Amino acid sequence: MNELLDELEDMIREERLTELRRAFDDLNVGDIVDFLERLGVKDRAVAFRLLSKGVAVEAFDLLDQALQSEIIEGLKDAEVAHYFESLDPDDRVRLMDEMPASVARRMLRHLDPRERSLTNIVLGYPNGTIGRQMSPEFVAIPEHFSVAQALEKVSKAGDDAETLYTLPVVDHGRLLKGVVSLRDLVSSAGEALVVDLMREADSVDADHDAEDAARMCADRKHLAVPVTDSEHRVVGIFTVDDALDILERAESEDAARHGGAEPLNRPYLSTPVLQIMRSRVVWLLVLALGAALTVQVLDVFEGTIEAMVVLSLFVPLLIGTGGNTGNQAATTVVRALALGDVGTRDVFKVLWREVRVGMTLGATIGVLGFLVAGLFYGWDIGTVIGLTLFSICTLAASAGGLMPLLGKKLGADPAVFANPFISTFVDATGLIVYFMIARTVLGI
Amino acid sequence: MNELLDELEDMIREERLTELRRAFDDLNVGDIVDFLERLGVKDRAVAFRLLSKGVAVEAFDLLDQALQSEIIEGLKDAEVAHYFESLDPDDRVRLMDEMPASVARRMLRHLDPRERSLTNIVLGYPNGTIGRQMSPEFVAIPEHFSVAQALEKVSKAGDDAETLYTLPVVDHGRLLKGVVSLRDLVSSAGEALVVDLMREADSVDADHDAEDAARMCADRKHLAVPVTDSEHRVVGIFTVDDALDILERAESEDAARHGGAEPLNRPYLSTPVLQIMRSRVVWLLVLALGAALTVQVLDVFEGTIEAMVVLSLFVPLLIGTGGNTGNQAATTVVRALALGDVGTRDVFKVLWREVRVGMTLGATIGVLGFLVAGLFYGWDIGTVIGLTLFSICTLAASAGGLMPLLGKKLGADPAVFANPFISTFVDATGLIVYFMIARTVLGI
């Protein structure tokens, strides 16, 4: 498979396009998408045009929104309308969010009235809510239906509905009463009543946070979850594959910010170098600004260092260990927040756990530091190093556990508030602790 | 909701168990699971026993394997058998993997013959393969069936099959020919032929890597994927909710190792402090050992520092910036590997990108460093700092991009080889670069 992809890349580089078109015939859509995701903008546009119409539509649907948007920009208006119309309303809105507003509006105008009104329903909900990610095309079953009636309705629904596997059951006022699965319908006698088969529904409000809703769908293993308005009327449905998209995006974001960069939101190899650079440079400068604090702290203690240069040898080790301890704690708590295992109200529980973890870690590594440093540089220095390691670990674990919760409380991304800043914070405070302990123990 | 959970915790702490049992009646299973995941081992055992039988089975199914295993350990053999039998074969195997081998074997012996043989099929595949995560309970449709015959077979399949929504289509020798969706079956006329409705199947070999297979299922938006043996006979199926479990576990693992710790594989608040400490201490010691290298490097350059103490002020800033740049690159590449956007064969592409990104970042931050350090500490020092920042950023971005690929190539977790070690590596080499440049420019 891998060699095949490399060969296809050679074909496009060497402009052997007839050969490439023939090669596409032997690939399934998923493989073609993998291939498109590795190409730069221009090559991708060329390759995309070689696809047969049906395959192109399917492949377009599976691409990242950022790449869809680039392809759209390279097409003529009539072609654009074709691909745009082939998307589900929720996918269409996600693509529109990627594009310049003027282009998005023009494309919306070209849609047929039915599709346009469905798209407008989804557009009516703010960014970041599940309403913006749901599909307004669902099949609702009236609660007084028999199984036969329900199956009849399902079989007529045709291709438009987002899913037929989880069906909201509603009363006369479209109020959600429960859900019934197609699986239960096909396994039951035709005269059985839907009301006897239906189960209590986990539903979400359309204004609810999208990531939260996606996590609930995944945790509770639902294939689809009905979305309701404030009066509990069904307005849409969202499916587990949308939940997967949302969670994958959120996890890419967490991972990137954890590493001190903005997410690329597109495949790495297809991203221009300058865009990668831009995703990192601001973070790097902000963190360097924070690190400038350490220069000032050391400036204050320059006299102490001059009196005892050996103290400077341990600076990277000490702040490195502090940074690592802080990172460990922050990572654990960011992940627990993302999974919904802890919330901001758990701040004291988290603090108390991390203080204890930090102290046990600090004691272990402090004793080792005391012994090793003492052996090589004398027991005075050993005492300073041991005490500093203990203090820094305790401090770093507590701060690392608290920072993500603080970030969440302030409405920011917990991952932003956590790892990149924890190092800066621990570096500066750790150095102060170090030199205070050194001055006291060594009497400088 | 949150306040309710707190109130429930109060009830269990104050042993108001009748009240708790009544409160459970108003909650749905998902909420009960959220509650159980916040409790310690003993409280969880108490709360679990208060659940009605049906709810207990459903809740047990949704719990993490680590927590299932703890609950099992607190139950009598007869009860154990009940919960164990209620699980699907694939979930059962995952639970067995969590438990001591002797307990697992004893429980296996208590199963009825049919369930035991199904479980043994899954147990026959090695850990980490998709065969170990699939369900052997699927409904296969012979290719010559009509829609009516297929629906008849589906409706008789009953509760056992893992899914009825994606149905493998097979020939006489059980060879996989394609898949047909229940959706297409119910929307078609009864006399239509399955062979005309079926689509080409994305399938995976049972020996295939589980995470890879899960990623494919998610990327291509399949609800289920047939699993085949080496002769392309269908042996099982795995569903998108299993894929979600696998990906979530992989992402928790990546996140934890990225932060320099082992994954907890269980909810944070339910994990004993000592277990959290153990998940971190080995990493911390290994990293500290690596950091001891910096002490030695600085020891070598002690003369240079003594001649010019001001050089020591910039150590945390320089190695911090190097670490940040390396982290950014490593994080991007680890994530791209996890998503399948790059592979080990892309090593030169990645290196060439990261060299360019590192040089542009280094030039930007180097010029700034030159100006600021020059202004405050003289242009000599400014030159040293500027040049060092440029070199370190280039070095760190390249190393950060390569490390995860190297890890993957060596068969290790890319996240292990990336972020925690990148800092250590950049710290030590960065210091050498720094003092070499300083000696040359300043003529010490």
Structure description:
Two copies of one chain form a homodimer. In chain A, helix 16 runs parallel beside helix 23 (419-442). The radius of gyration of chain A is 29 Å and the shape is globular. In chain A, a hairpin with a 5-residue loop joins strand 2 (166-170) and strand 3 (176-181). Chain A is mainly alpha-helical and 444 residues long. Chain A has helices at residues 2-13, 17-25, 29-36, 41-49, 53-62, 65-73, 77-86, 89-98, 101-110, 113-123, 147-156, 182-186, 194-197, 210-219, 240-258, 273-300, 302-307, 310-313, 315-338, 347-377, 379-409, 414-417, 419-442, and strands at residues 141-142, 166-170, 176-181, 204-205, 224-228, 234-239. The first copy, chain A, has three domains: 2-128, MgtE N-terminal domain-like (MgtE N-terminal fold, Alpha Horseshoe); 141-249, CBS-domain (Roll); 272-442, SLC41 divalent cation transporters, integral membrane domain (Tetracycline Repressor, domain 2), CATH 1.10.357. In chain A, the strands form two sheets. In chain A, strands 1-2-3 form a three-stranded mixed sheet. At the A-B interface, helix 3, helix 11, helix 12, helix 14 and helix 15 of A face helix 3, helix 11, helix 12, helix 14 and helix 15 of B. Chains A, B: It is found in: Cell membrane; Membrane. Chains A, B: GO terms for molecular function: magnesium ion transmembrane transporter activity; metal ion binding. Chains A, B: Keywords: CBS domain, Cell membrane, Magnesium, Membrane, Metal-binding, Transmembrane, Transmembrane helix, Transport. Chains A, B: Acts as a magnesium transporter.
